[in-house]
Amino acid sequence: MPMQRFALQVSMFVSLLIALMCGANAAHAAGEPPIVEIERMTWVEIRDAIAAGKTTAIVPTGGTEQNGAHMVTGKHNFIVAETARRIALALGSALVAPVLAYVPEGDPATGSGHMAYPGTLSLDDDVFAAVLEGAAKSLKAAGFKTIVLLGDSGGNQAPQQALAEKLTATWANEGVRVVNAAKYYAEAGGDAWLASDGESKASIGTHAGIRDTSELMAVLPAGVRLEGAAPDSAGATGDPTKASAVRGEMLLALKVEAAVGEIRAAEEALRQQATARGIWARILGLFAG
């Protein structure tokens, strides 16, 4: 009996292995998109990708905050992980760093902002900026030339913008540019699209409303508890009961489009800068000769 059981286990293992191999081959044959997430790649794969021209690094920042009674606290993290992936694939020149899930959310001592609700985790602005600066320096050392700070939350924007300006000025002569993708957050046109789809400013809301809820429904349906959704409820504004995954996909597409345009412009500016430096170097070389 033990030998028969062992033979059965071996047979089951071999069958499972064959199934996995067939599945992997089928996925490859189906042309699944390449992996662009740095944490899912080896250092050798990252090195080779940079050498092949993937010199843009996207640093997604989310946040761990309350999102009403109907959404999980990691909402921003799940959304920005997916949008960053889509942005990188659309660009064809980028890889994605791990999501930073700890961001400014309010004062823990006074319970301001989202800190009034359990589950929210907050960093001071200077600590948040210091973590991002360390990440940017690491990516620069690896060979990335355009470093994009992609924030999915409002509190992330000002520290990211200040850091992007600081590092771009510091590294100007090294051919490295740091960009805060502000249009992704503030100018994607999500609210305008919802208004064109029949929603009012009140029904759209500003936090954990139609927009946020729809986006998470498209990315992580299990993260939404619609039975707990209610208009202008504790921790949320707007009417999340009007959210849908279909709306979410449209809203995500708008954010991705806005970011791709902004990042491409930054990449082009960097190329023009490099070209100008090269021309000046040749001119100076002629005079020196």
Explain what this protein looks like in three dimensions:
This protein is 55% helix and 7% strand. The protein has 289 residues and is α/β, with parallel strands linked by helices. The chain has a domain at 34-186 and 258-279: Creatininase (Rossmann fold). A four-stranded parallel sheet has the order 2-1-3-4, with helices on both faces. Helix 5 (154-170) links the parallel strand 3 (146-151) and strand 4. The protein starts with a helix and ends with a helix.
List the helices and strands and how they pair.
Blueprint: H1 2-29, H2 43-51, E1 56-61, H3 75-91, E2 94-96, H4 125-142, E3 146-151, H5 154-170, E4 177-180, H6 182-186, H7 190-196, H8 201-204, H9 210-219, H10 245-288
Parallel strand pairs: 1-2, 1-3, 3-4
Helix pairs in contact: 3-9, 3-10, 4-5, 9-10
CATH topology annotation of the domain at 34-186 and 258-279: Rossmann fold
Spans of at least 5 consecutive residues with low confidence:
1-29
General shape: elongated
Instruction: Give the amount of beta strand, in percent.
Output: 5-15%
The CATH homologous superfamily of the domain at 34-186 and 258-279: Creatininase
Separation, N- and C-terminal Cα atoms: 88 Å
Question: What order do the SSEs take from the amino end to the carboxyl end, as H and E?
Answer: HHEHEHEHEHHHHH
Query: Percent range for helical residues?
Result: 55-70%
Kindly state the number of beta strands. 4
- How confident is the prediction overall: mean pLDDT? 89
Strand order of the largest sheet: 2-1-3-4
Major sheet: size, sense and barrel closure? Answer: 4 strands, parallel
Query: What is the name of the CATH class of the domain at 34-186 and 258-279?
Result: Alpha Beta
- Strand-pairing-aware structural class: alpha/beta
Evaluate the radius of gyration. Answer: 23 Å
* CATH architecture identity of the domain at 34-186 and 258-279: 3-Layer(aba) Sandwich
